[in-house]
Structure formats: C-alpha cells, structure tokens
Amino acid sequence: MNRNSKKRAANQLLNRIIAYSLLILAIVGGGGVVTVWTRHQTSQSANRLQAIEQQIREGRRELAQLEVELTVAMSTDKLIDLNRTLELGLREPAYTQIVHVTDNVETRLYDKTANSVFTASISSGN
Fold this sequence. Notes:
By secondary structure, this protein is mostly helical. It contains three helices and no strands.
C-alpha cells in the first residue's frame, strides 16, 4: 500500500501542477483578450474623433466661404448696384457717410460688452 499512496501523492501533485498551469494560461489569455479589446476600442474612438474633426474642418471652411460671400454682398458698391438694379429709389450715400470697419468686429463687441459689465458692477458696488 505504500506504493499506491506514493503514486497517489505523485498524481495529486501532477494534477495540481496541471490545474495551476491551466489557471495561469487562462489568466494570461484573458489579459491578452482584454488588451486586444482595449486597443480595438481605442482605434474606434480615434476613427470617430477623426471623423468629427473632419466635420469641424468642413464646417469652418463653409463658414469662411459664407463670410466671404456676405462681405461681398454687403460691400458698398454691391449695395449701390442693387439699389439701381431693383429701383428702390434710395439716395446714394455720400462718401463721408461710409464707414469702413477694419478691425475685428467680434473683438470690438466683446470689449464693449465687457466694459458695460465692468461699469455696471462698479456702479452696483460689487
């Protein structure tokens, strides 16, 4: 019986080694699957981000094009020409009445708004 007990002990040890090996293999394989999944998700997010950036660039390009068209449509010569073409009967402005704005209108508007908020806060005592 001594021989059978040694055989059993050896079999139990071998079974434990195989079980632990399979467990380690499963953990490493699971880690690999998680790594591949994470890289796939990163790739998908990068593709979506690139598509969104492309849409933003396209929107900015269209906006710039519309700004150019608006600037041309609102030019003094164009407005005078439309007045004549459509026979609106409006008097043409004197050259001294025409004011050309050369600086950034948005900056001027922001400064004006910020100044009014600042003066309002000073007058209210805050």
